[in-house]
Each structure stands twice: as structure tokens, then as C-alpha cells.
Design brief:
The chain has 440 residues and is an all-alpha fold. The protein has a single domain, classed as Up-down Bundle (Growth Hormone, Chain: A). Helices cover 76% and strands 0% of the residues. The chain is globular, with a radius of gyration of 24 Å.
């Protein structure tokens, strides 16, 4: 009897006990993929720390004009942008991992080959072609693809974090490369950048995944969806998306304003700030340290901009960012001095907060206007960013050769930023993005 009661009780207990659910991972895989993307962009961005540091050493060693060196940098920047939309399409066709591993290898090859160059055409081949193609394949279109596939919630925040990766690379490598150039010459600095790109390769291959469905997950904050079949005709698709987007007004406003963004950041400050400060008697290491400080506040400003983009009108955010940037550039020539003083520190902090704060709202507007093609459209908008940067990288060097000063370039860039602010304001809002979520 007792045994029967016991069996009945145990059976009832078993039946009434709640079924145990399989434990859910505390960290969604999307955040791991985002972390790998962050590290990858840092590794690829390491090379972007070099051009401004090497203009004077290359000019001294080889006798190349600043215009020649600036032309090599402009090729790199232009290819960086023009590669991006095709890289986004190639990622759809061959997968993120394969494209990024090849890109990192190209960056390492270009940086290593430059150690043995003896002519300016080699500088354009190694720095311009190889590194431009490699870094372009890991440009912002890469982060846009990862964000679009792996995240539904918190897209603005993740965009800001991944955009800040480039600034983080600058923060890590600028002081290091400046010290290496100052103490050991430019060649060891180039080797350091090559090794940084190669170190990232195993992380990408082992931890990166192309789509949430590869690991049986839904994107963060969204519903599960099967992985689409590999897209064919990657180059054709990139061109088709460009042709379709070019028929719309918002594309040209976004591309034009982002070209000015590139001209006033990568083309101007990243390339010419250090040699300009050196013209005024500042040590290269001190000027490079100021750029590194820009990197610190760039991270803060970009992440905060992503948070703001989830909550406010992206057009107005862009207008404010460009207007403030233009005003700061107009004051910069008056701040140049042999030593670092408080007004220059204020400029550096201010400019750092605004450096790529434009990216989250620009990407949000691409999503709003172009939906599923937004990553490729953003790649073309980024191409305009880099074309603008390339023009100023080259013309800034020519202006320095001709006038003996960078002042004209600072003033012209400030005026262009005012134009970009007006362009942002006239972008019309057609609809809210279909996957927008309420702010929490």
C-alpha cells in the first residue's frame, strides 16, 4: 500500500512539475559578431593612421612633393569608397568571412610591399591600389551589412559602436606609429600595420558568421528567418542599385553632404593636420597625440549619435553636426602654434565628438529611403564620402606646395560644411522605416 501511494505521489509530482526549458544564452550571438566586426575594423583602420605621419618623412627621404604623396593617399581613399558597394554585394554572394579575410590580406600585402618601394608610382600601387581595395572591402558598408542582418533592435546604437571602431583604431595606432616613426623610421611603422591586419584574420574566420540562420538564431530583437540563397551577379546588382537610387533626389543630397563629410575629416584633418601643425613648429608626436585624442571623443560622439538617431529626426541631426563642424574649421588656422594650448585642446575635443557622428543618421536615412538595398546604397554614399576625401587629400597637398600654407584649405572646408548642413535639411521624409522600433 505504502509503495503504491509512494508511486502515485511520485508520479503526480513528476506530472505536476514544470517542464524545464533549455537555457537561453545570456549573450545573443549577434553581439559576438558585432564584437568581431569591431576588432576587424580596428585592424583594417590601422593603416589609416599612417598617411598623415609619413608625408614629411617620405618628402625628406625621396624628395617627392606633397602633391605626389597626396595623390597616392587620394587613390587609396577613392578606392576605399568605390570598393564599398561592390564589397557589400560580394558579401551577399560569397559570405562576409571570405570577403573580409581576403581584404585583410590585401591590406597586409600593401603595407609590407611599401617597405621596399623606391619610386612614387610604387607608393600609388601599394598604398593606393592594394590598401585601398582592402580597406574598402571593410568599409562602413561592412558594418552596415552586419547590422542589417544581425540586428533589428538597437540598430542605431550598434551602427554608432561599429562606426567608432575606426576611431578606436586611430586611438590605438596613432601614438604608437608616431613613436615608431620618430624613433625608428617609417618602415617599421608600416610593418606594424601589416601585422595588425594579419592578427585579426583568425578571429574573423573562427567567430564571424554570415547570417543568424547559420547558427539557428533570429536576429537580435527580431523574428527568425531562413538564410536567403547566395545572390548572383554581385557587380551587376551594385550598379543596378546605383542606377535606381540615382533617379531619386535624396540620394544626391545624401551623397553630396557625405562627400563634404569625407573632405572635412579623412581628406583634411586625418591627412593634413599633422604636417600643418608641424609647419607651425609642433612636434610630430604631439600632433599625432592630438589626433589620437580626436579618436577618444570620436568613439563617444559616434555612439551618442547612434543613440540620438534612434530617437530624433536624422535630417536635423546631420544639419547640426555639419554646421558645428564648419564653424570649428574656420577657427582652426588661428589655433595653430608650436605648443598645445587650451583653445587647441577644446577644438580637438569638439571636432572629435563630431568626427563621424554623421554616420548613424546618414545610414538611418538610407534605410528609410531604400529598404533592403540600403547597405549597397550606403556603400555608394560612402564612395562619395571617400571621393570628397580623396580630392582634399590631393588638393590640400597641392595648396601647401603652391601657397606654403594650409589656411586656404581650412577656410574652404568650413564653407563646404555649411552647404552640407543645408543639403541635409532639404531631404524629404517619405516614410518611416518598416522595422523601426519604439525607443526604450
Amino acid at each position: 500500500m505504502l509503495s503504491g501511494v509512494t508511486q502515485t505521489t511520485d508520479s503526480a509530482t513528476v506530472e505536476s512539475a514544470p517542464r524545464r526549458r533549455s537555457p537561453r544564452p545570456r549573450i545573443h550571438r549577434a553581439w559576438i559578431v558585432a564584437a568581431v566586426t569591431f576588432v576587424t575594423i580596428i585592424g583594417g583602420a590601422a593603416f589609416n593612421s599612417l598617411p598623415g605621419l609619413l608625408i614629411d618623412p617620405l618628402h625628406t627621404e625621396f624628395g617627392w612633393s606633397r602633391g605626389e604623396i597626396g595623390l597616392a593617399v587620394s587613390i587609396d581613399m577613392a578606392l576605399y569608397g568605390l570598393t564599398a558597394p561592390f564589397a557589400a554585394a560580394l558579401m551577399d554572394r560569397f559570405g562576409i568571412r571570405r570577403v573580409v579575410v581576403v581584404a585583410l590580406s590585401a591590406v597586409a600585402a600593401g603595407a609590407l610591399a611599401s617597405v621596399w618601394m623606391t619610386a612614387s608610382w610604387q607608393l600609388m600601387l601599394y598604398w593606393g591600389l592594394l590598401v585601398g581595395l582592402g580597406t574598402g572591402s571593410m568599409a562602413m558598408a561592412f558594418s552596415a551589412t552586419v547590422t542589417h542582418r544581425w540586428f533589428v533592435a538597437r540598430r542605431g546604437l550598434v551602427t554608432g559602436i561599429l562606426t567608432a571602431a575606426g576611431a578606436s583604431g586611430q586611438l590605438v595606432f596613432l601614438p604608437l606609429c608616431a613613436w615608431i616613426v620618430d624613433e625608428h623610421g617609417w618602415r617599421p611603422a608600416s610593418v606594424t600595420v601589416a601585422l595588425a591586419a594579419l592578427v585579426v584574420v583568425p578571429f574573423v574566420w573562427l567567430l564571424m558568421r554570415d547570417h543568424p540562420a547559420d547558427v539557428g538564431l533570429a536576429p537580435y530583437g527580431g523574428a527568425y528567418a531562413e538564410k536567403p540563397p547566395p545572390a548572383t551577379g554581385a557587380a551587376t546588382r551594385a550598379v543596378r542599385v546605383l542606377v535606381d537610387a540615382a533617379r531619386t533626389g535624396p540620394f544626391w543630397l545624401l551623397a553630396g553632404s557625405f562627400a563634404i563629410c569625407g573632405a572635412s575629416t579623412n581628406g583634411l584633418i586625418r591627412t593634413h593636420f599633422v604636417p600643418s601643425a608641424h609647419d607651425h613648429g609642433m612636434q610630430i608626436t604631439a600632433a599625432a597625440s592630438l589626433l589620437a585624442v580626436i579618436g577618444i571623443f570620436d568613439v563617444i560622439g559616434t555612439i551618442f549619435s547612434g543613440w540620438l538617431t534612434d530617437r530624433f529626426d536624422a535630417r536635423r541631426l546631420l544639419a547640426v553636426y555639419y554646421a558645428l563642424r564648419g564653424v570649428s574649421l574656420l577657427f582652426l588656422p588661428m589655433l595653430m602654434a608650436p605648443t598645445v594650448h587650451p583653445p587647441m585642446v577644446f577644438f580637438i575635443v569638439f571636432y572629435g565628438l563630431d568626427w563621424v557622428a554623421t554616420v548613424p543618421p546618414t545610414l538611418a536615412l538610407c534605410r528609410e529611403q531604400y529598404g533592403e538595398d540600403s547597405a549597397i546604397v550606403f556603400g555608394w554614399v560612402l564612395a562619395s564620402h571617400q571621393v570628397g576625401a580623396a580630392l582634399v587629400a590631393f588638393l590640400g597637398g597641392v595648396a601647401r606646395d603652391v601657397t606654403g600654407s594650409y589656411d586656404l584649405v581650412w577656410y574652404a572646408s568650413g564653407a563646404l560644411c555649411a552647404t552640407a548642413a543645408l543639403m541635409a535639411l532639404v531631404i524629404r521624409r517619405t516614410r518611416e522605416p518598416s522595422d523601426a522600433l519604439p525607443a526604450r
